[in-house]
Amino acid sequence: MFLINCPFCGEREQSEFKAGGEAHIERPKQPTELSDDEWAEFLFMRKNIKGVQFERWNHAHGCRKWFNIARDTSNDQIKAVYKMGEKPPVK
Amino acid sequence: MKNKYSIFSLIKNAFSNHENWEKAWKDPEPKKEYDAIIVGGGGHGLATAYYLAKKHNMKNIAVVEKGWIGGGNTGRNTTIIRSNYLWDASAGLYDHALKIWEGLSQELNYNIMFSQRGVMNLAHNLQDVRDLKRRTHANRLNGIDAVYLNTEEVKKFCPIINTSQDIRYPVLGGTLQRRAGTARHDAVAWGYARGADEMGVDIIQNCEVKGIKRNGDTVEGIETTKGFIKTKKIGVVAAGHSSVLANMAGLKLPLESKPLQALVSEPVKPIIDTVVMSNAVHAYVSQSDKGELVIGAGTDDYISYSQKGSHDIVEGTLNAILELYPIFSRMRMLRQWGGIVDICPDASPIISKTSVKGLYFNCGWGTGGFKATPGSGDLFAHTIANDEPHKLNAAFNLNRFVSGDLVDEHGAAAVAH
Amino acid sequence: MSKNLRYKSSKLVDETYRISFKFNNKIYYGYKGDTLASALLANDVHLVGRSFKYHRPRGIMTAGSEEPNAIIQLHDNTSRTEPNVRATEIEIYEGLVASSQNCWPSVNFDIGGINNILSPILPAGFYYKTFMWPKSFWEKYEYFIRKSAGLGKSPKEADPDLYEHKYIHCDVLIIGAGISGIMAAKMAAKNGLKTLLVDEKSFLGGSTIYDNSEFSKINNQITSSWLEKEINEISKLENLEIKTRTSVAAFHGYNFLLARENLTDHLPINQRDNKIRHRLLKIRAKKVITATGAIERPLIFDNNDRPGILLSSAVKKYIDLYGVACGENNILFTNNDTAYETAMSLVQKGIKVNAIIDNREVIDSKLSYEVEKNNVRIFKGHTVVDTYGYKRINGLSIMELSKDGQKVIGKKIRLSCDSLGVSGGWTPAVHLFTQSGGKLKFREDDQVFIPNKYPSDQLSIGSCNGDLSLEEITTNTVLSVKKFLNINNIDYKSFEIITGIHKSKRNIWLLPSDKILGKTKSFVDYQNDATAKDIKLALREGFRSIEHVKRYTTTGMGTDQGKLGNMHALGIISETAGTKMGEHGTTTFRPPYTPLTFGTIVGRNVGEFFDIIRRTPIHDWHVANNAKFENVGQWKRAWYYPKENENMHQAVQRESKAARECAGILDASTLGKIDIQGTDASEFLNRIYTNAWSKLDIGKCRYGLMLNEDGMVYDDGVTTRLDENHYIMTTTTGGAANVLGKLEDYLQTEWPELDVYLSSVTDHFATISVCGPHSKKIVSKVIPDLDFSDEKFPHMSFKNTKIGQIKCKVMRISFTGEQSYEINIQSNYGKSVWEKCMEEGKDFNITPYGTETMHLLRAEKGFIIVGQDTDATMTPIDLQMDWIVSKKKYDFIGKRSLYRSDTIKDDRKQLVGLLTENPKEVLEEGAQIVADVKKSPIEMLGHVTSSYYSPNLNKSIALGVVKGGKKMLGQKLIIPMENKNINVTVADPVFLDKEGKRLNAKL
Question: What integer pLDDT is reported at residue C213 of this predicted model?
Fold first, then answer.
């Protein structure tokens, strides 16, 4: 169980958080103009990276805020935590 | 022809102190080129190679495995085999597998210990009851032997379950598939490996794929830690690492790889003679032939390739185990471990061609791939050999994520995703 | 036979406190401080159990948690029974009853011993090669295999003991209170760090605490005395918490560790009630120091498993700590100097040591000369080739080793003994280190794996770090701990160490024999009966990875997890395959370090604490009025209220008739309620619901349907506009938390520009729904100040009002199709308002109804229940709810998915009504629907989602989903059941009052 440094509350147990999958997949602004393929790409297709992944987490049992972290999925080491809307830290 | 395994060959070999058993499979170095390469030496990959050689006469083929065969989810799962799935497509797929399981020891001349001790799924609330009844009716009409049991019948079939109606989530009923059961996971990998090897398949261990070479929309071969191997057909059966392989070929898949944990207790004399699964309180348990209680926990909600899950998941599972089996409180956990499972949005697998010619994927089995091993291998072999899916795996194509024609089996999957 | 092998003046045992216990139905005596193993040995009992596969007699082999053989059943046939308990770990107590396992009829005469005779045809993995004929017989073979497998017996009763969890946060956790752990604890605590020191034993000092000979000194004091002073000193340190009988089970990432503190297992059985048995410590440590010591290796030779064969260090431990000799005629067999310490401990107490067999040709330590002086014969360059004695060793034969150690030469010499101590050197206990993700490296000189790369802020010290001599331990501990903790205030200056032993060792993984290997039984894994020849067989058959060999031979898969044998397995593999150690992997040490009781892991989360129970503010009333309850998520909802002898069906018929004919009252408090505020609240609702919200007037309510992004129905409920920028949304009971989570997700991550604030107010309000033709009269009496006229308070509108002084919100909304009012009031007034409604409704036959009746009433109206009439495959179009999907809105969650090639098909499964040919026949929910029962394979068109007998319509009604059902109105279909086919007709899903007249009906 890792420790996550919530940008709003500080370091907390992972069990307080909920994972939200890959980050920086923006919901299309004009979904109706997408082909079925393009829509499926947004809806289902994921990089599912082994290595440093940017991903969304929610402090579900805390401040309820969403934020992003960069985590190495091969060993679960967290490299960085950053707020929604912020650019991912360079690898 | 390899040594045939039997009690007679055991006795015969006893006289020579078992010095003369042959290798179950060779450990060859890769050739320069194969007609097809299967990436991933788990049960599904080895079965695929076996059926390619056996049913499609493709013998110049190889299985490449990053570590040792059967060392991934094949050797880490809780070995439950059943086919009581809801949708026609799934029922067809999993029952095809179950039928092969029923004769597999003899076919492979390797005792994979398929033990049809029955699998029971419990209902703990009224919606569970409706869902399980719905599934049982569908199973029956699909020719799958499932029956619905009321609480007393559940108790009768597995007397150690706490069926008191005063517990937090009392058992309201359940389903039973008697043909379902368990098998010896390692033996499945080893038996298929031995069988494939005998037909000339090269099983190449400690050979990690580093790249998939494409020429335009066609595959040309794989880059590995043992060099480049040329081929026109690549079947990827890499479970939790499927996306990693897909990314090498420039594809994305609708998968997330998550930790799934399991544990065993210390071995004890027979105490539970069937497999009991409970989706609602999240506990499933069986007892191995060695006597260990084999307990499956759930997945974590984050992507990880670390083969480690969080302790909360194990704790939650054991909470549920003690809720249903208070007598196990003084039993002890001997070992826990994790695997990486590749989960599809609809909890159904992908056995499919891709947009790249000659590249095929068999993945997305999530938490329940073991049960399908022989069927999956058979159908994937068909798909690779004919460049065309078999009718039993046609529904499990990649295009369903575009069209929306999903095969939603969340209700029938063992682990609530 | 019962000899007394107890000698005076031991370290741990209190000879004034005698304890009686039972083993295999015989009464024995021991002393306070004894383990079951030491007490049995004192009574000259070695035969304790039978092995897993061959049922060979086995005795006590170790003095610690690595014990593979001496595992017993405690308190058989009682609620406190426990299988597979290590006799070496259990401290004896008054009332202890233990028995041997895996033997029948007794440990002395065990029928299963036949397996030992059959062993030539039972090599590793034999079961993969046989039991395949005839095909149908596997389950019969398996029955006997299962019966003979397993070790102890599972308890059959619920556990009377209590367990709990405790969270601990500390600066430094030190695992193991041997010499290095004690030194580290002193350094840490004296430098102001909050330190926790844990040890699995009941005493501190590890194995150094009995390093009590004249030949081992630190700064001129006998080592054990020096350590005792250190222990004395640290026990007074304020920053240091010490926990004994506390075993670290798991070392997870981010320095999260689990430890089991054993609180009552050593107490007399009659003193355990109402006490916590184990406490699971969940430790988050800023830094972890692992000081878990080393485990002595056995030696691998033919018949190395007989009762009476122990680790040499165990022999020493038993005499020094417990004053117990393992035999009267001892022999030691070693490849290093530590066995000479054992010999000294024995001879100093006057116990006979016949001989020491030493692999090495040159032995040159002070202690060895000292031992020789005491008339112990030393066989240099020799090895044991066989042992004798079935239930207890009575002798052995030795031969000389060739120069290269690969062969034996010369003549066989037979020696007699009743105890053999073996020492194959030491293996650093790196289990926890590797569990944490640490990587090992192999040290060639003495053939050990030691920590290489730390995955977290941690350090290994002492012998678990490969520092096996006293000099290395003391010096390196100070240096590395100082650096690791970044501290300066160190008491330790330099150490003057005197030791009688050298580090030299002659490591031979598999000792040669005069027999061919195939005829030997040289055990590598004692518990599972995996021998050296099994490992070689596995290699011959092509299994090369250690994991393959381990699984094929079951080496290391026993309850001791291979603590003794894994190194030898690796050694034999690399020797046979001609590869380097570690090349085939090192096997993964999986948690827990020692088995952990399920009850301990679960703690208090059992029984009533298994899961939170959510009860509505009106719950007590329901209980008092005989309600039956249904679990909905974590909520307890009133299901129905049977009167006297009513069954559920009768109660539901009565309740639903009353609701339509007079008045019904429902506790709807469990529905999720989300307060939505902000200037963009309307726009927000537009985006999350399928229908349009901008034009909803203040004070009005609207039903909404929420989809997943994949277009499938996710949740539904009524949302009310309280003010310009203020809404209250209701969700399904089970969906409340997820809906809030989803809304927050979109709000924060996709639409941060929207000015909207969400908060869950589910628990703030009690919700009382009064419906039926008399409902208006009743609520008018409950809230006399409010104008309930249809003009002022029409359907789908809302009023702020007061009951007495208490503010409440009243919505006129209906899930039953009847005129219906929903009173929302602060939770703590819920029950009194409910009672008030009951009181005022008495004259109108107001009838409380539960969820079952609610389901029936809404089904009569064709209203869906998300999750019952839908699964994750139903779009609103499939539900025939096209009317709620806005065509004008540019976008909403899930909209795009409704236009995919599959979702636009018109033959998808669609919601329809179903009427049975026989109106009395009620369909089974979940039953499948077909058009043609003769077709093969049969084609299932859909299934029954909801089904009831409607007392208001006097017939059976059902909802179902049917492929292309929209166009099938009036068509006949079949429900094929196990024993019959039921004919149904497809109908409009709205069975009652399609026009909605009842919403405004006047009586």
Answer: 87
Instruction: Name the region of C93 (left: φ>0; alpha: ψ -120 to 50; beta: rest).
Output: beta
Residue C181 pLDDT more than 80? yes
In sequence order, what are the residues at sequence separation of 6 or more whose Cβ sits closer than 8 angstroms to the Cβ of residue C839? Answer: none
Phi, psi of C232 (to 5 degrees): -60, -40
Q: Residue type for C711, please?
A: G
Task: Look at residue B1 and tell me whether its pLDDT is greater than 80.
Answer: no
Among residues C99, C53, C94, which one has the least CA distance to residue C76?
A: C99
Instruction: Report the pLDDT value the prediction gives residue C589, as an integer from 0 to 100.
Output: 84
Per residue in C286-338, pLDDT (tens digit) is 999 999 999 999 999 999 999 999 999 999 999 999 999 999 999 999 999 99
pLDDT at B413 over 70: no
Domain C1-160 fold? Ubiquitin-like (UB roll) (3.10.20)
What is the reported pLDDT for C1? 44
Cβ neighbors of B303 (< 8 A, separation 6 or more) are: A19, A21, A22, A48, A49, A53, A55, A73, B256, B257, B258
- C905-999 CATH: 2.40.30.110
Contacts of residue A2 in chain C, CB cutoff 8 Å? Answer: 253-254
Q: Do A73 and B304 touch (CB under 8 A)?
A: yes
Do the Cβ atoms of C288 and C372 come closer than 8 Å? Answer: no
- The CATH T-level fold of domain C311-423 is FAD/NAD(P)-binding domain (3.50.50)
Give the chain A residue nearest B246 (alpha carbons). A47
Hey, how many other C-beta atoms are within 10 angstroms of the C-beta on C319? Answer: 25
Strands C523-525 and C309-311: unpaired
Q: State the pLDDT at residue B414.
A: 44
Mutate which of A12, A22, A32, A34 to test chain C, going by most C C-beta atoms within 10 A? A32
Q: Are C78 and C269 in contact, with CB atoms under 8 Å apart?
A: no
Does the pLDDT of residue C438 top 70, yes or no?
yes
Measured CA to CA, the distance from residue A24 to residue C771 in angstroms comes to: 48
* The domain defined by C508-589 carries CATH number 1.10.10.1100: yes
Alpha helices in B16-113 (DSSP H): 43-55, 88-101, 104-108
- The nearest alpha carbon in chain A to B242 belongs to A48
Would the pLDDT of B409 be above 50? yes
Q: What is the DSSP letter of C715?
A: E
CATH superfamily to which C162-294+428-498 belongs: FAD/NAD(P)-binding domain (3.50.50.60)
- pLDDT score recorded for residue B22: 94
State the complex-level ipTM. Answer: 0.98
Domain ranges of chain C: 1-160, 162-294+428-498, 311-423, 508-589, 672-857, 905-999
12-31 in A: which are within 8 Å (CB) of B?
A: 14-15, 18-19, 21-22
Provide the shortest C-alpha distance from residue B377 to chain A (in Å): 24
Mutation target among A48, A52, A55, A76 for the B interface, most CBs of B within 10 A: A48
User: How crowded is residue C102: how many other Cβ atoms within 10 Å of its Cβ?
Assistant: 28
* Residue in this structure with the two tokens 């209980």, named with its chain if needed: C623
Q: What is the pLDDT of residues C393-407, one digit of tens each?
A: 999 999 999 999 999
Range of the domain at A79: 3-83
Query: What is the per-residue pLDDT for C2?
Result: 57
Q: The domain spanning residue A65 has which CATH number?
A: 3.30.2270.10
pLDDT tens-place string over residues C914-926: 999 999 999 999 9
Predicted pLDDT at B412: 64
Residue C608's pLDDT band, with cuts at 50, 70 and 90, is: confident
Return d(Cα C927, Cα C941) in angstroms, integer: 11
What local confidence, expressed as pLDDT, does residue C588 receive?
Answer: 73
Q: Kindly write down the DSSP assignment for every residue of C162-195, as one continuous string.
A: EEEEEEEEEEEEEE--SHHHHHHHHHHHHTT--E
